[in-house]
Design goal:
The chain starts with a helix and ends with a strand. It has 1 helix and 13 strands. It has an 8-stranded antiparallel beta barrel. A two-stranded antiparallel ribbon has the order 1-13. The protein has a two-stranded antiparallel ribbon with strand order 10-11.
């Protein structure tokens, strides 16, 4: 009987502590490895976001990508062609989270839209002589997008992204057309953020 009375008088109070608490601001940074067409490279970005809802935030992101792509080796191995590419971006982004708010693990999907500044320089190496035949002096600004998904664990973030960027025309020093370069690429990045608390919902029980 005593145990019955004790269990009957248990009071459970719930206290919610979210990293995506509505109305809060968070700042993050990421470094990644990108996989463009026939190549590879490095990426980095910083972002600033506002939590519109407990499971949705939006903001802007500034990033860069440095890569070598379109690598091609001739059948006789006497010629190698590659394109060195640099892009800087300013994107408006939004992420939606599927967290149940009972752990630090929070999967998400997101999109981005904005402007990319692209510089492509193509090189050909033939018989140990480098010939530059495609490059931009001032580069070009293009509009593009971003699709991504990943998860956050505590304050850390792992993301798989696909960048949707229009292709660029390659021209030689005399402004002659030399083909197109695909600017789209896949990226995987690891980062962290500050602000916003923790994903886990804390459950407190008080016993009388």
């Amino acid at each position: 009987m005593r145990k019955f009375v004790l269990y009957s008088l248990i009071i459970v109070a719930f206290t919610d502590v979210y990293s995506q608490e509505k109305g809060k601001i968070r700042v993050g940074a990421d470094l990644g490895i990108c996989l463009p067409n026939q190549g590879g490279g490095l990426t980095g970005n910083v972002d600033f976001r506002y939590n519109i809802l407990d499971n949705f935030n939006a903001g802007f992101r500034i990033g860069f990508g440095l890569m070598i792509k379109d690598i091609a080796i001739s059948s006789d191995r006497m010629s190698v062609t590659s394109t060195e590419s640099l892009n800087n971006s300013f994107l408006i982004t939004g992420d939606y989270y599927f967290s149940k708010k009972t752990s630090y693990f929070a999967p998400f999907i997101g999109v981005g839209l904005g402007t990319y500044f692209i510089e492509n320089t193509r090189f050909t190496l033939e018989n140990n002589e480098t010939q530059k035949f495609g490059f931009y002096i001032n580069g070009e600004n293009v509009s593009g997008g971003l699709l991504r998904g990943g998860f956050e664990w505590g304050k850390f973030r792992l993301v798989l992204e696909y960048y949707l960027i229009p292709s660029s025309a390659l021209k030689d020093l005399s402004n002659n057309y030399k083909g197109m370069s695909n600017n789209c690429y896949t990226n995987i990045s690891l980062g962290f953020y500050i602000g916003g608390g923790k994903w886990k919902k804390l459950v407190k029980a008080q016993y009388l």
